[in-house]
Amino acid sequence: MSYGPNPWVQQHWDFRAAMNFIGGGAGCGLLIASALAGGPRTLQQACLLLGLALVGVGLLHVWAEIGRPWRALNVFINPGQSWMSREAWVAPWLMLTGAAALFFWPLAAGLAAVLAAAFLYCQARILQASKGIAAWREPRLIPLIVVTGLAEGLGLFVLLAAFWQGLDIGAALTLGGLLLLRLLAAQRWRAALAAGRTPTRTLAACDRALRPLYAGSVVALALLLLALLLPPGVAAAAQALAGLGAALGGAVFKFLLVTRAAFNQGFALPHLPVRGVRPSSASHSATE
């Protein structure tokens, strides 16, 4: 049964919507990381270019998902009440300041990082505002999405930095701290879902979505530890692989969260009528 009291996966947001959260989160995290970590100008330019490209690809996927693409302009109408509208208003300023920092005004990278943080927060609130989806409406999803984006972005930064300047101990330690925070946020989100009236199918789907997040985080932490112990040449390669693992784990998690774990709550019908049975005897529960 795909309707009624049994939860079903929403069909309105597919992989294109997931790409917005994947590209937007990792791209914003990379813009923030490049502004805070510094490094050679060419490294910062590479981070800016990749970060803006990821955000742009995510937005293009959302635009392509709409049946009549020019209706996308309607998203700007209601910034006072819609987090999606707020994200849309932040996006052009983020792209403009990022482009300025990339081509002619390096100091604009700081402003782009602030706008990237706002964009990332809007994305987290978009998911949490979807009250009909049990896995998304839990408030503890907000810090999980934010810290996941930051870890993805810093993971991409240490991946790129390995080719420019070898092992970056400060960035590696920071990434390790973010990965630990990501694991903690994931556990708190999962515990909150279990403590609430979350359908069992949703919990099972969330467990499957969390597996790549856990795996990517643990593998990346192990590689970062090795990078601190190995000779410089090998350490840079371990750092690069750790950054890649951190980014991929978060991306797969968000893809599964949007496309596989997005179960509706289902109808709250305490009792269903049964043909030939008095109403007082029909006590079939419709909740899971």
How does this structure look, described?
By secondary structure, this protein is mostly helical. Helices cover 71% and strands 0% of the residues. The protein has 9 helices and no strands. The longest helix has 30 residues, at 200-229.
Task: Draw up the topology in text.
Layout: H1 15-37, H2 41-65, H3 83-103, H4 108-128, H5 134-137, H6 141-165, H7 169-195, H8 200-229, H9 232-259
Helix pairs in contact: 1-2, 1-4, 1-6, 1-9, 2-3, 2-6, 3-4, 4-6, 6-7, 6-9, 7-8, 8-9
Please sum up the structure shown:
This protein is mainly α and 288 residues long.
- Tally the beta strands: 0
**Mean pLDDT metric:** 87
Strand content: under 5%
Sequence stretches where pLDDT stays below 50 over 5 or more residues? 281-288
Give the C-alpha Rg: 21 Å
- SS summary, helix count: 9
Which structural class matches the secondary elements?
mainly alpha
**Which CATH architecture would you pick?**
Up-down Bundle
- CATH homologous superfamily caption: Formate dehydrogenase/DMSO reductase domain
The biggest beta sheet reads: none
Relevant terms:
288 residues, mainly alpha, Formate dehydrogenase/DMSO reductase fold, disordered C terminus
